[in-house]
Design a protein that fits this description.
- By secondary structure, this protein is an alpha+beta fold.
- The chain has helices at about 10-15, 20, 25-30, 55-65, 80-90, 105-110, 130-135, 155-165, 170-180, 195-210, 220-235, 245-255, 270-275, 310-325, 325-335, 345-350, 355-365, 375-390, 400-405; strands spanning about 45-50, 70-75, 95-100, 135, 140, 145, 145-150, 150-155, 260-265, 280-285, 300-305, 340.
């Protein structure tokens, strides 16, 4: 089975504060979109399929009420979602509304299973450009994201203050800070370098910000990025165990005080905020020259599958429009810990939610993983994490590791 990585691994299920905001969702969403009645004729019952638990259900139910529908919500395992969707397309049993991890939208659109959202007057105008690109295939929009996420550099404020270290902005500053912060059982820096898409996801900001290209990873830009990560390991600033750590493991190291800085996403905020005495903040991931960070975009898109029932597809389009409205985006952001994809809404969100300010900054210049290669992205992602593993396990130099990985599966 193909390994599948969701940018925020089952993050909604882990949200500790979700229950506290559920009661506010109906007030937030009321009147967000739709006329309050379904299309004339046909059933008003919609089926929704996602790979979360019940966390989003109150938002789904409120949007259904707003557009005059009833909903049946099916939660499926994320790991088997794509094969399930392809089977549903073959057997003509697709749901009316389908949530997809954003790197999967183009693949499913290419199969013919999704409808063009312009048929429902939906667009991604005003959204972060990379988010729109992720759900666009051959010039047509097949999904809209209500929220998005990326990764940033978290740091332990107390440890940096005690060491007289400022949050780094460049690679040189990162290496110097990580070295100075490494003391006793505490490493200065932590990231996931595991041999899955999570490892690729965490390496991409260094790779892309330096000009790396997934069409050919074996370039000087890619070598420089991989050399940075190897240097952090070789000088003792990053644990050699990072090759086995998923992002949750990295967060555990940070929570335990065993890492002064780490790369991670906003879905870790509930656990970070629950840790008594932990003072932390985050900044965009450092780049070689100190310029803008180019990081990958995470999050899920809502789509309207080709079910053959035109009336219900129109109703599903209204429902998705409600989820994608600014009020819908804000309601889901409260539950997910992510940020609204609408640029203006995201900026306002950062003002009232300062802990995600660095992520709001990052997503403005972030990229969709499928933006260049489309459905072929998983092949490149595999090459990238393979190269990282080869280098960090000492089997090849960064340059040789990238060349060897690039030559695979050509």
């Amino acid at each position: 089975m193909k390994q599948k990585f969701h940018s925020s691994p089952r993050r909604v299920r882990a949200l500790l504060g979700a229950a506290a905001v559920l009661a506010t969702v109906p007030l937030v969403l009321t009147g967000c979109s739709g006329s309050g009645s379904a299309s004339s004729g046909g059933s008003k019952a919609l089926t929704i399929e996602d790979y979360y638990d019940a966390s989003y259900n109150p938002v789904y139910k409120q949007c259904a009420k707003d557009v005059g529908a009833t909903v049946t919500i099916n939660h499926v395992a994320g790991a088997g979602l794509i094969s399930k969707v392809l089977q549903q397309a073959s057997s003509k049993t697709l749901p009316d509304v389908l949530m997809l991890d954003n790197p999967d939208v183009q693949q499913i659109a290419a199969s013919g299973a999704l409808s063009d959202l312009s048929a429902y007057d939906l667009s991604a105008s005003g959204d972060v450009p990379g988010v729109k690109a992720a759900s666009t295939y051959k010039g047509k929009l097949y999904g809209v994201q209500s929220n998005t996420n990326s990764i940033a550099l978290y740091y332990n404020k107390k440890l940096l203050s005690e060491a007289g270290v400022q949050p780094p902005k460049t690679w040189d500053e990162l290496k110097a800070a990580a070295k100075k912060l490494t003391k006793g059982s505490t490493y200065g820096f932590a990231m996931s370098n595991i041999n899955t898409y999570e490892g690729t996801w965490q390496f991409l900001p260094f790779f892309w910000s330096n000009g790396g290209d997934e069409k050919d990873i074996a370039t000087t830009a890619g070598t420089q990025a991989l050399q940075l990560v190897e240097d952090l390991q070789n000088d003792g600033s990053m644990s050699k165990s990072s090759i086995n750590w998923a992002q949750a493991d990295v967060n555990n190291q940070f929570l335990a005080g065993k890492a002064a800085m780490m790369i991670n996403g906003p879905w870790q905020l509930p656990a970070l905020n629950a840790k008594k005495g932990l003072e932390f903040d985050s900044v965009p991931i450092p780049t070689r020259t100190g310029g803008a960070t180019v990081a990958p975009l995470g999050g899920e898109a809502f789509t309207v599958p080709q079910t053959g029932d035109k009336a219900k597809m129109q109703l599903a389009g209204k429902f998705v429009g409600c989820l994608h409205s600014v009020k819908g985006q804000e309601a889901l952001a409260k539950l997910s810990g992510n940020v609204p994809t609408n640029i203006e809404a995201g900026a306002k969100w950062a003002e009232s939610h300062p802990q995600v300010a660095s992520f709001v900054t990052t997503v403005k210049t972030a990229r969709a993983r499928t933006g260049e290669l489309g459905p072929d992205w998983p092949k490149a992602a595999t090459k990238i994490y393979t190269a990282v593993q080869l280098a960090l396990t000492g089997k090849a130099s960064p340059e040789a590791a990238l060349k060897q990985a690039q030559s695979q599966n050509q």
